[in-house]
């Protein structure tokens, strides 16, 4: 499909191709909808894109996701996301990120960057040498994971209110797949609220930490998926709800931190048919975005947490409207975003 067809069909504003022959930079910035404010979204840096077309498609898909996440969270930003196609051989990482900083600056503030998969706080330090349009910096808002986890816990409270009649998570059985940055902080939030927690992760050290620090029970992924529990929290990779896991799940609700939890929209339909309530991922995991948006506005940790706490209200509204309309929660959330963008 031609680039213009992709942009027009997907409602995109622009795709920027940014390059620098000295450093070898090849970056793509996808811009979806900036009606509510400048694009804000992370930079993904990978050496594994099979083609430029694949990298552009990834930047565009991710930018669209940011439009939806920001609009639903009430953050005054739009959808932007960057992808850097890292050279396959040896290269000077510092120079690549410095030239990326210059490229971001050249966009004049339409796009504000931050970390994402494959980029680190150190990379952002190199970016910031040449642009002011960067957030998630070490000595400012720092690691977004604790705030993201807090937001997911608030989303779970709203879920519990709808499914079990009370927002209290005490005694509820929660399964967590992936105890990395966000998953571990989520386990901490759940521990503080008195939930009973089971975890699984491919990294044994992380599992051990969760067991010793928070008294959770470790199980393998297959057992975790089959367990009878109240809420399942996918906190590892995307596509956690797929043909295999769908048939195993024995929970009342799915509410977690991972992006793109539903492998396809069909998996959302199937979850609903099985009577499992799905909390839209981009609604539950917006705390990290709220945190960096707060950094852009002037960082205040208390304000970032107070705004993230409102994820409870957002999920409450989404689930109430879903019940009233017969639509699935992810359809309701998308409609709420589209109303905000049109309004
Ligand atoms: P992370 O890499 O720190 O953690 C992921 C964890 O999942 C790791 O411990 C890893 O070992 C584990 N894992 C990977 N594959 C697995 C598998 N097949 N089975 C079990 N465990 C597996 O990443 P993170 O920052 O914690 O992010 C987790 C998810 O949340 C991602 O989907 C991310 O996009 C999303 N997210 C993160 C943030 C944030 O603030 N970090 C914000 C919004 C969304």
UniProtKB/TrEMBL annotation:
A single GO BP annotation from the record?
Answer: amino acid metabolic process
Do you know which InterPro entries this protein is assigned to?
A: Aminoacid_DH-like_N_sf, Glu/Leu/Phe/Val/Trp_DH, Glu/Leu/Phe/Val/Trp_DH_C, Glu/Leu/Phe/Val/Trp_DH_dimer, Glu/Phe/Leu/Val/Trp_DH_bac/arc, NAD(P)-bd_dom_sf
What is the active site of this protein?
81
Query: Where does this protein hold NAD(+)?
Result: 178-183
| UniProt domain Glutamate/phenylalanine/leucine/valine/L-tryptophan dehydrogenase C-terminal: residue ranges | 142-343
UniProt cross-references to SMART domains, sorted A to Z: ELFV_dehydrog (SM00839)
MF terms in GO = nucleotide binding; oxidoreductase activity, acting on the CH-NH2 group of donors, NAD or NADP as acceptor
| UniProt keywords, alphabetically | NAD, Nucleotide-binding, Oxidoreductase
Family stated for the protein in its record:
Belongs to the Glu/Leu/Phe/Val dehydrogenases family.
Spell out the protein name for this chain. Glu/Leu/Phe/Val dehydrogenase family protein
């Amino acid at each position: 499909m031609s680039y213009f067809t992709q942009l027009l069909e997907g409602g995109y504003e622009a795709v920027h191709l940014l390059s620098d022959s000295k450093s070898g930079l090849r970056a793509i910035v996808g811009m979806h909808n900036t009606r509510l404010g400048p694009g804000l979204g992370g930079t993904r840096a990978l050496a594994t894109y099979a083609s430029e077309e694949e990298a552009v498609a990834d930047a565009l898909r991710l930018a669209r996701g940011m439009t939806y996440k920001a609009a639903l969270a009430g953050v005054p930003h739009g959808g932007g996301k960057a992808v850097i196609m890292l050279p396959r051989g040896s290269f000077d990482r510092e120079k690549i990120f410095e030239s990326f900083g210059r490229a971001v600056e050249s966009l004049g503030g339409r796009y504000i960057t931050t970390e994402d998969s494959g980029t680190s706080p150190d990379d952002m330090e190199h970016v910031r040498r040449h642009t002011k349009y960067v957030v998630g910096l070490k000595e400012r808002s720092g690691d977004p994971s604790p705030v993201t986890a807090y937001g997911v816990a608030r989303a779970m409270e709203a879920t519990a209110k709808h499914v079990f009649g009370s927002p209290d998570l005490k005694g509820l059985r929660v399964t967590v797949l992936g105890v990395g940055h966000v998953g571990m902080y989520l386990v901490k939030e759940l521990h503080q609220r008195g939930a009973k927690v089971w975890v699984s992760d491919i990294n044994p050290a992380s599992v051990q930490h969760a067991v010793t620090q928070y008294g959770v029970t470790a199980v393998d992924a297959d057992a975790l998926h089959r367990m009878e529990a109240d809420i399942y929290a996918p906190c590892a990779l995307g596509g956690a709800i797929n043909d295999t896991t769908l048939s195993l799940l024995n929970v009342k609700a799915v509410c977690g931190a991972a992006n793109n939890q539903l492998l396809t929209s069909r998996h959302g339909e199937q979850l609903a048919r099985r009577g499992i309530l799905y909390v839209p991922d981009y609604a539950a995991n917006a705390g990290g975005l709220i945190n960096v948006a707060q950094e852009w506005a002037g960082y205040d940790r208390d304000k970032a947490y107070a705004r993230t706490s409102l994820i409870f209200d957002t999920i409450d509204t989404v689930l109430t409207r879903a019940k009233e309309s017969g639509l699935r929660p992810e359809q309701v959330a998308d409609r709420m975003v589209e109303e905000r963008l049109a309004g």
